[in-house]
Amino acid sequence: KLAGCTLFITGASRGIGKAIALKAAKDGANIVIAAKTAEPHPTLPGTIYTAAEEIEAAGGKALPCIVNVREEQQIINAVEKAVKTFGGIDILVNNASAISLTGTLETATKKVNLMMDVNVRGTYLTSKACLPYLRKSKNPHILNLSPPMNLNPMWFKNHCAYTISKYGMSMCVLGMAEEFRGEVAVNALWPKTAIHTAAMDMLGGAGIEKQCRKTDILADAAYCILTKPKTFTGNFIIDEVLLREEGVKDFDVYAIAPGHPLMPDFFLDVEIDTTAVKQEGYGTAKEEKKLIRSQQEGADAAKAKTESAVAMPSGPVAETFRVIQGAVTEEYVRSTQGVFQFELSGDGGGTWYIDLKTKGGSAGFGKPPLTADVVMSMSSADFVKMFTGKFKPTLAFMTGRLRIKGNMALAIKLEKMLSQLNSKL
């Protein structure tokens, strides 16, 4: 269906962009690989040239172009080269994206600029550069890898800048679909579950892939969209929902570890975690008050116990910290160099800490001996599940059940340490 069509795909040297390129290449499509990795990256696989080899091996024609979407002239040059090489552009896939899952005070200005420049501005400028050629195509499409706009505050509170930037891509769909209705189809595609890419490995740490699907599911969903007529426009599509409508029944083929629980992706409310939040206009104030009240109760209870000469509360939380204290080694301290504070609500709640900065390290009840680098707030029940391997920190964070303030890189280091400690806990 896509034989002879020219696809301009940003960020196509690896991951989702490359998967969409390879799917189209099997039909004999022309692929413009518009990405910035020309030299091998120390930790990330693939360059525009290795991707080009794979695309040609799959049956397509490839044009690798060095494009940093933050640089408008690089976009324009690549578009002109694509038109000169293949005679036009039929499809644009805005896949390039930057991510930093950090709070407002913890997000460096250069990170804010990066996300806004790549996600919003890059998508807008690439669309602008391609549109004059897309309008000349018989069945033109723009496809943005961006989510439906969910205004539940849960998706803003932990990573406001990232959310704004991804919704900016979605607003490009909203506006351009209407502006070019009848001329160019403009749609958004988003995964229902986490997708296993190099970026997800960095965010989730070791073992995260078992909770992910392969990039193939997005490639198949993108193919369905891009082969529809241009009247199919202005849609915010979830991969699994579309494929079910198309008759796909076996989704195990997309799983990295079939049968293993899958992690839901950002911006999609999950019934089990958000039912209470959805009520009463998301019930934000109510939920926050409940959390603050339970944290206060936990803190008051802890204070009362301390005053009555009880050194440390008992129960699952105290037992978990006792095991952590026994497991802390000089190696953990040397490799981590961070102090973690936990504000826990519910049974055994209050303030707890793990000090992996001071020589020898320590863990226990109360404020840490040094100012915390990372403060994590969650229920004590979720904390115990997290530290015994029954609840992934990444999933807890993505679903709003874990709030993180401070150094996100250190938070990820702690998760890696957890995976090593799970057998003892």
UniProtKB/TrEMBL annotation:
GO cellular component: mitochondrion; peroxisome
Main location class: mitochondrion
InterPro entries: HSDL2, NAD(P)-bd_dom_sf, SCP2_sterol-bd_dom, SCP2_sterol-bd_dom_sf, SDR_fam
Stored Gene3D superfamilies: NAD(P)-binding Rossmann-like Domain, SCP2 sterol-binding domain
One matching Pfam family: adh_short
Compartments, record wording: Mitochondrion; Peroxisome
GO function term, MF aspect, one: oxidoreductase activity
Name of the molecule in the record: Hydroxysteroid dehydrogenase-like protein 2
